Amino acid sequence: MIRRSSFLRAALCSLVLCGPLAADDEASRILHVQADGSGDHATIQGAIDAAEPGTTIRIGKGRFEESLTISKPVTLEGAAWDQTRIVSTSDSNEDLSPEVMQALSRIAQELDAETQAKLREATVKVYASKPALAIRDTEDVAIRNLSLLRSEPVRQGGFVSSGAVEIEDAGVTIEGCAVLESPGTGIAAAGESHVSVRNCLIANSWGKGVAISVAEAGSFEIVDSEIRNNRYSGISIGSPSPEIRVQRCRINLTGWHGIRYDSSRPLIEGNSFQSTVVSGIYASGVTAATVRNNLFLNSGMSCWFQCGDTIEANTFVGDRHEKLKTGIAQGVQVLGASNPTIHRNIFVSCKNAVYTGDIGGDRPHSKASGTVQLVENDFWDNERNLARYDAETEGMVSVPLPEGNRDEQPQFVDEEQKNFALSPDSPFVEAGIGARDFAPVARIWPLQPEEERMAAPIMDRLFSIQPPASDQDAR
Residue 97 burial by CB count (10 A; 0-12/13-18/19+): exposed, middle or buried? Predict the structure, then answer.
């Protein structure tokens, strides 16, 4: 009893005496930056440099032309993603004139691919902007409610690897942000980084929306986000880490692939893919991904070389009956020595639901094994359920399906309105066949002005180009 009374008195004393001090301490860990310079610091970088570890830097409304570097645990918090903009622009005094571009182009024509890439990178260093945000060698960084843009006119000679947001050997959470412009990549993560991206928009990158190359000990998750209008890929993964997750994201309008991964093993779950010019997912090399519960709407999956993925409980909807064709003919392509497990998926209205074939050339693992693990899938209203390329006729031929697959109408909620969720009455709900609880097909984030210049050429490419020949490596 005495001990309890003593403890209560000590606790009460602590609250009375230390409460105001704790409040003052908390207030001292918040810095303000305003666009008119009226905050605690004139610039965001000035506030970062002055901040103690654990400080929250609150950034007001407006446009801030800065290139930020963070190497300590701090939080950047904007007024809202559409009210606070951090824009990195080129600080070079030299203009990249048409004459300079023509001279660089002539020089590049005489160089090999590796040297051309080095020339592009050198050009970017001289003429281009820096990342809007670089985070390195720290933990516990949080970025919230901002728009980040790396804005510059350099657009010739392919895309570059640098990003609007670059993360290396850092622990970072990015929430409620829009990464709206980059000459190369939107968000790039490398080294032993641990990154979480949630409720974000990543759009209008000339190369890749997100590039993940973290080490095996690193991790990366992107959840409940929208990735669209990126010229090459929405997400590219080249990482040995088993902790890569893409979940409940809307991925559409990419000039090549929605997601591309090489010799990686990500979890790709609950996403919707639509209007990706070449493929929704492109898996190449020795892969061991789990691709589960996704909707592929006019957007298939390609497995190259030694893909060993598990592809289960997805829904693939083709454009067989659409007046405007996207050119994506296959639900799943199984190419070369790939041998994925294709289990409990729905294939509807595809020209070729599943296609097998060789990869052009005589590279290792380019010849098809001739076997596909197709188990408990549903095939409905496809021109061919299982197809292979026939060299004699130079065309596609049907192959009998293995036993254990179905041919039943899936019973979607409203196919005419593009609602491909399964009706509660569908027998496939209980059987666990097809995708459920995936990201919505409709746009989540409002279209931004910066996206217009990227969206138009992607749409032109989507409905005008012919898909690459099935035996060629369309990278």
Answer: exposed
Q: List, in sequence order, every beta strand (DSSP E) within 279-362.
A: 279-287, 290-292, 295-297, 301-307, 310-312, 315-317, 330-335, 341-343, 346-348, 352-357
Local confidence pLDDT in tens for the 475 residues of the chain: 334 344 344 444 444 444 554 555 555 599 999 999 899 999 999 999 999 999 999 999 999 999 999 999 999 999 999 999 999 976 544 555 667 767 777 887 788 877 877 776 666 665 556 899 999 999 999 999 999 999 865 444 445 667 999 999 999 999 999 999 898 899 999 999 999 999 999 999 988 999 999 999 999 999 999 999 998 999 999 999 999 999 999 999 898 999 999 999 999 999 999 988 889 999 999 999 999 999 999 899 999 999 999 999 999 999 876 665 555 668 999 999 999 999 999 999 999 999 998 888 787 888 887 578 999 999 999 999 999 888 788 788 999 999 999 999 999 999 888 899 999 999 999 999 999 999 999 999 999 988 877 776 776 666 564 444 444 444 4
Tell me the pTM. 0.86
| Tokens standing for residue 189 | 């993560």
DSSP state of 103: H
- Start-to-end Cα distance in the chain: 75
Residue 244 bridge partners (DSSP): 220
Question: Exposed (0-12), middle (13-18) or buried (19+): which is 327, by Cβ within 10 Å?
Answer: middle
For every residue of 173-208, DSSP letters joined together read: EEES-EEEEBSSEEEEEEES-EEEEES-EEE-BSSE
Residue 469: partners with Cβ closer than 8 Å, 6 or more residues away: 360
Please tell me the distance from the alpha carbon of residue 135 to that of residue 296, in angstroms, as a whole number.
34
